[in-house]
Design a protein that fits this description.
Elements lengths: L4 H19 L6 E3 L6 E3 H17 L4 E4 L13 E9 L1 H5 L6 E8 L2 E9 L4 E6 L5 E2 L2 E2 L12 E3 L19 E3 L4 H10 L4 E4 L3 E2 H13 L3 E3 L14 E2 L2 E4 L1 H10 L3
Parallel strand pairs: 3-4, 10-11, 10-12
Antiparallel strand pairs: 1-2, 4-5, 5-6, 6-7, 7-8, 8-9, 12-16, 13-15, 14-16
Helix pairs in contact: 1-2, 4-5
């Protein structure tokens, strides 16, 4: 059995990747969640079932929060909780796009203490603990040193740059880019391949918990859209948006947003 929480998440993420590869581009069963909550596939459920069995067996006193498991309020009484998105970027997975990810985190006292984001089709494993550096396939990574908005690359969907969200009716002069997985967007900021990421709508904890720690341990500042630290394993497990960027660039984003 892995000794540390981070080792446990790494082993589980790699096993999740082995399962996802078996379904990828092989016409898995697809259905839609109630309330227009998006699609889910056989692969999502198979990965979720494995992760819940393996992780909760290894740490039976930890709570469990996952996109593909009905929420159980018992997690609120646990000192630590797993926060899991079995496949972040399900639509990309369905489309045969390799940019989907497995997002696994452990939270304690409202903060993430161990995190892994794994893209199995790219064999890219991002990891961090609360005490150590962020890594990509075992090598340390660092957020960019970009301090000004002009020319900076921003990972965001187009609606986030609509005029109503910004003071004066226009966002700073970013170069907008997009990747399907929110968890991977945060990791790409951690890696310094892109300068910042932004999402303004309420965002599920399982989409951002792992990427939050990885980006922060790589030197980025990560908050909700109001500038506050995101508290995890909350009764209502949604963040009020996410801003992630190096400090001065984060301040530029935050200052530009309309209240």
């Amino acid at each position: 059995m892995p000794e540390s929480d981070l080792d446990l998440l790494i082993d589980a993420a790699r096993e999740a990747g082995r399962i996802a590869r078996r379904y990828f581009r092989r016409d898995p069963g697809i259905w839609h969640k109630p309330g227009d909550a998006g699609p889910v596939t056989e692969a999502d459920i198979a990965v979720n079932d494995m992760l819940k069995a393996e992780l909760c067996t290894a740490r039976p006193d930890y709570g469990w929060l996952s996109e593909e498991t009905p929420d159980d309020a018992a997690r609120l009484d646990a000192s630590r909780a797993f926060i899991v998105d079995p496949i972040d970027g399900t639509r990309a997975f369905i489309d045969g796009d390799t940019s989907f990810a497995h997002s696994l985190a452990i939270a304690s006292g409202g903060a993430v203490t161990a995190a892994v984001v794994y893209l199995p089709m790219k064999d890219a494993l991002y990891a961090a603990s609360a005490e150590g550096p962020s890594t990509l396939n075992g090598q340390p990574i660092r957020a960019s040193g970009r301090s000004v908005a002009e020319g900076a690359t921003l990972l965001a969907t187009k609606p986030n740059l609509s005029s109503e969200h910004w003071r004066g009716g226009a966002p700073p002069p970013f170069e907008r880019k997009f990747r399907a997985s929110i968890a991977w967007r945060l990791c790409l900021v951690a890696e310094g391949r892109f300068d910042a990421m932004l999402t303004l709508r309420p965002t599920w904890e399982w989409d951002v918990a792992a990427g939050d720690l990885i980006a922060r341990r790589a030197g980025a500042r990560v908050t909700n859209r109001l500038g506050n630290a995101i508290r995890y394993n909350a009764p209502d497990p949604k963040a009020a948006g996410v801003i992630a960027a190096p400090g001065p660039l984060w301040q530029s984003l935050r200052n530009g947003l309309a209240e």
